[in-house]
Specification:
Layout (H helix, E strand, L loop, with lengths): L1 E3 L17 E9 L9 E6 L5 E5 L5 E7 L2 E8 L6 E7 L4 E3 L3 E3 L14 H12 L3 E2 L3 E2 L3 E2 L9 H12 L2 H16 L9 H31 L5 E2 L6 H10 L3 E3 L5 E3 L1 H14 L10 H30 L8 H4 L2
Parallel strand pairs: 1-7, 2-8, 2-9, 12-13
Antiparallel strand pairs: 2-5, 3-4, 3-6, 6-7, 10-11, 14-15
């Protein structure tokens, strides 16, 4: 703020030799009338030929001596107050008394930088993933389109597994699988009819839940691995094919580094071993069935990754905004 000071001698000013310099003095106060000490006052003459700086004393007063006559400007600066500017004209030999300078308190500007923790970032990304559905219907939770997605906590891994397991569409897909098995009379020990279908449905759902929790929640939590497929979306078709297939046996660790996908491989084997507990006796093959189921699981994962890499992305709305296929990352 700038104010013009009187250009005539103020109260107490005295005329002097027109060729002599003059003095400028005054007092700085705040809006309550209290004096402001240690206020920095800078004097500048119009032609920039003279510059002086002083600070106000404990009584708020300041003074400049030997000031060349002519127009001048005073700049008042003090911590916690707005800077004030005043201008006037000093006559030769004059002692210029500056009217009281009142400094208003500076408007408080507080800048708060809010940074999300890694867990909070992961939670937001998981919430985005939970909106991903193929054709807006089929869950597509276990793929991230964020190349540097934050690692999931154990709680987030279990929550994602639970939501996948109890999703209505998951129940429907299991029903379709059980229907196909019944039509082909797979696991004939279950029989036919509603009872046979119910047993097949229960076994298929048990396979799905055990595989999801063991391979995508329990082991990833213990081994600190990420159960999601990290969409590539860039590069040559060959590089993307190899990347997708490799995703069945390698994964990102919670430390962000690629490593053998023990969670998926062991999860498939464990799910196969558990299935021996409830499949018909004649369809059990002990270790053979376990490794067969595990191999099928690895192959299915590779196939699913290929579909994710080249097809599903185009059919899935509501993907993360920083999808590398859009940003070029």
């Amino acid at each position: 703020m700038q104010s013009a000071l009187p250009d005539a001698p103020g109260a107490g000013a005295s005329a002097a030799d027109p060729r002599s310099s003059g003095n400028i003095s005054g007092t700085v106060i705040d809006r309550t009338g209290a004096v402001v000490s240690d206020c920095r006052i800078k004097l500048t003459t119009k032609d920039q030929s003279q510059t002086q700086e002083v600070t106000s004393g404990d009584n708020g007063q300041f003074a400049f001596s030997n000031v060349a006559p002519g127009p001048f400007q005073l700049t008042f600066s003090s911590a916690g107050f707005e800077t004030q500017v005043a201008a006037g004209i000093l006559h030769s030999g004059e002692t210029f008394i500056v009217p009281l300078i009142t400094l208003p308190v500076a408007t408080a500007i507080t800048q708060v930088q809010v940074g999300l923790s890694q867990v909070e970032v992961a939670q937001q990304q998981v919430q985005d993933e939970e909106k991903q559905r193929v054709l807006g219907v089929v869950p597509n939770f276990y793929v991230t389109y964020v190349s540097n997605a934050a690692p999931l906590t154990s709680k987030q891994k279990f929550t994602l597994a639970w939501k996948t397991s109890v999703d209505p569409v998951s129940f429907g897909l299991v029903g379709v699988i059980a229907g196909i098995q019944q039509a082909q009379d797979q696991f004939s020990g279950y029989g036919q009819g509603a009872q046979g279908y119910g047993k097949r449905y229960g076994a298929s759902y048990a396979d799905f839940v055990s595989g999801t929790f063991i391979g995508s929640a329990i082991l990833p939590s213990v081994l600190k691995q990420d159960p999601r497929y990290f969409y590539k979306g860039t590069g040559s078709i060959r590089s993307r094919i190899l990347y997708a297939i490799a995703g069945s046996v390698i994964c990102k660790g919670d430390n962000g580094k690629w490593q053998p996908n023990y969670s998926s491989v062991l999860g498939n084997l464990a799910a196969g071993a558990i299935s021996n507990l409830y499949y018909p006796a004649q369809d059990r093959d002990g270790v053979g069935l376990t490794f067969e189921s595990g191999a099928i699981g690895i192959g299915a994962t590779a196939g699913a990754n290929l579909i994710q890499e080249f097809v599903i992305r185009k059919l899935t709305p509501n993907v993360a905004k920083n999808d590398p296929s859009k940003t070029g990352d």
